[in-house]
Predict the structure.
Amino acid sequence: MSRKKPMISPVRWTFLVLSLIVLLVLAVVFFKGGRRELIKPSVDVSPVEVSGQEDLPPKNKEIVLFFPAEEDSLLHPEKRRISAGSSVAGEARQAVEELIKGSAQGFLSPLPPETRLREIFITRDGTAYVDFSKEFMEKHPSGSSAELSTIYSVVNTLIYNFKPIRKVFILVEGGEKETLGGHVNLSRAFTQLDSLIAQ
């Protein structure tokens, strides 16, 4: 007695064919479209991370302050570190405030310690207006050499360290003054005086 081979019904046959077609479509979508999306993010993200690290500004910078000394009438250089800022005026403010703090190497203080820096701003022509509190005049010791040392410690420090600054104008309590103590004329802008710097 011979056995008949089981026949595949038309419905079953159609189901198998449709299943194969669906599998083929999914395979094509996965291998062609899926791979592109997996690679894309790494290309887009990596350049942003690298450039962000390269653009970081330095944390601080070295400047030179100029202080008078007891043994001569010259201004002596002293290195100091300040925070690197986004503006020249901000860094210049720090430099003047370091002068007010005084020397770390035993030089004389060019400004009375009670002095406050009220404001500093720089014009387009390179003139820095430095506005001190009234103690700048009231507590200052008398004498022409003391006045010269005070004025040019500020002037030389600012012009030496900051290229945009070419001249310095001294103000007190927001206004112009004729002299600091009767000797040096304050009604004009000062330029750097290299002959006062000790070699």
Summary: The chain has four helices and five strands. Strands lie at 60-68, 75-83, 117-122, 127-132, 167-172. Residues 60-196 form one domain.
